[in-house]
Design brief:
Chain A: This is BMP family ABC transporter substrate-binding protein. Chain A: InterPro entries: ABC-Purine-Binding (IPR052910), PnrA-like (IPR003760), TAT_signal (IPR006311). Chain A: It comes from Siculibacillus lacustris. The complex is a heterodimer of chains A (370) and B (306). Chain A is of the alpha/beta class. Chain A folds into two domains: 127 residues, Response regulator (Rossmann fold, 3-Layer(aba) Sandwich); 196 residues, Response regulator (Rossmann fold, 3-Layer(aba) Sandwich), CATH 3.40.50. In chain A, 38% of the residues lie in helices and 19% in strands. In chain A, the strands form five sheets. Chain A has a seven-stranded mixed beta sheet with strand order 12-10-9-8-6-7-17, with helices on both faces. A four-stranded parallel beta sheet of chain A has the order 2-1-3-4, covered by helices on one side. Chain A starts with 7 loop residues before the first helix and ends with a strand. By secondary structure, chain B is mainly α. Helices cover 70% and strands 1% of the residues of chain B. The chains are: A alpha/beta (370), B mainly alpha (306). Chains A and B meet through strand 7, helix 8 and helix 9 of A and helix 1, helix 11 and helix 12 of B.
Amino acid sequence: MTKFTLSRRSLLKSAAAGLVTAPVFGIERAAAAGLTIGIIYVGPRDDYGWNQAHAVAAKALKLVPGVTVVEEENVPETIAVQKTMESMIQLDGAKLIFATSFGYFDPHMVEMAKKFPQVEFRHAIGLWQKDKHPSNAGSYYAYLHQAHYVDGIAAGLSTKTGKLGFIAAKPISSVLSNINAFAMGVRKVNPTATVQVIFTGDWALPVREAEAANALADSGCDVLTCHVDSPKVVVETAEKRGVKSCGHNASQASLAPKGFITGAEYKWETVYKYFADLLAKGQKLPNFERGGYDKDYVQNTAFGAGATEEAKKAAAAAIADLKANKPYVSGPLKDNKGVEVLAAGKVVDNYDVFLETTNYLVEGVVGSMT
Amino acid sequence: MSDDPFFTVAVAMFAGAIRVSTPFLFVSLGECLTEKSGRINLGLEGTLVFGAMSAYAISYLSGSPWLGVAAAGCSGAVFGALHGFICKLPKVNDIAIGIALMLFGSGLAFFFGKSFIQPTAPRLSAIDFGFLTSNPQMKVALQINPLFFVGLVAALALWWALRNTRFGLVVRMTGDSAATARAMGTSVDLVRFLATTIGGFSAGIGGAFLSLYYPGSWNEGLSSGQGLMAVALVIFSRWNPIACVAAALLFGAAGALGPALQSVGISQGYHFFNAAPHILTLAIMIASTSPKRSLKGAPGELSITK
């Protein structure tokens, strides 16, 4: 241990020095900084899921010289987020706001963008439209559905009963596109399999998520996956019930040593790193940033014990195709009520907005959105 | 597995009643005792959350889930004692203190709980009654946590004690008329302090069940208002511990309805089914109250019924 002594005189000296220099440093830093970034999370920053994925990746922004980051967690998707944004702008002097939850956008972020035209707003889900929304707002999004599609392929080759379960929070486009991609993956390799979906109604309801996982296991599903903020409960409950599971958002492999197949993970660090580089160069962030496997914005968790050899092979092949940006959605495609959503012969490009404006469940998904 | 959807839903509701009811039961039993002594402790939601956090943390650090349960009970007792102590100061409103403690308990739990969201702690194990049946779904439903039985026994004991013992008489007297209790030489403050402390202990145990058994993980959305609902259950069950058991089971079963129906393919209107417990409460409350008389069994000193 190093000895640390502090005499009264040296304490007084350093305190006096601090008093003199602190304001000077303050001014200097503020002048160099120029940019304060506000980041808003809907849940705790360490939830083993969505919010954590953002918070960990957003650290890249803090490393940019001169940039100050202010964060607020547990901000509900209500008028509260407007107050948070306003205080970040007025009190902390934020010039760039990252709003990381779906419900923050309309009307809250849109209102704030109109009110503060000199501040840039970016929303982490694809709702911003060029001709509809303010030009100082924008969105960035990673195509997690590509990774869910890979999950589906691995799951479709790892199921025995041909019944798979998907526990989803809310029937919104980003969730629906994940459910659909999972189902398309499953049915590509296992055409008769079905995906049973349960909507819990909100992003974090651990008791209901556990009930849903048990109900699905009871009704004969032998692979479960989910789109909720924190998939820990679902994956652990699946493991307890002796059924297999696929993860979501971040790696949950260690929670299910027996039944884990693979999982869909964001690589927000690539996105935020890209943003950080732009900011360091003094450039403006794009209003519309998208990417999937091709840009290294998403990935799949390393295969667990639940994945069969066949599943691993097929999933690896699918990943290689996605990395080369080969389209994976093509017609004919029907929704689960039998209505055609894509005509035969049509091929959908991976960057087509068709894939993120999903408002239906594809054929093979058992469940309803309302 | 069975293909009969009615059977699947029935089993899910039965299993849900047992799995989900335990925290409701412990919180409502604790609140029942507190309210019988003439105070309302709305802070039990915060106690439940803090209990869940401390149980998970202690279980993770010590490796023993039952030590976690004990820690949850003790921390709950501390919160109860705090409520009891503050409320005995002059001109203090127990409901306001309860709300303050609810926020304080949750906030403190979130603060200390940050580092325990990711680790996996040893969980409580269940007693397996699966040998009673050959049906695989029922086998799973019959894995019952010992705390459930502890709750049942506690409810019976509380019911019996409130009716038949001197302790019960003193609690009820304090709750019905503080003046009478003082005339009899009983310290009203002491009785209420102890009743609130024991109530907090019980709510803490309820929290331990949440984080250590079902759903069996600590995170900040864990309780999502169950502590508050359990307080409402007490009024709903007319301050009767046995009725608390029934109410908790009913709530558990109703909560399982939404996911169970969706799992068998009845998914239209799932928002409605997910809200089943709340709709049920409203319906029963409306059906069973009357503007012409006060609630039967309500302690006379309770600030909401006075």
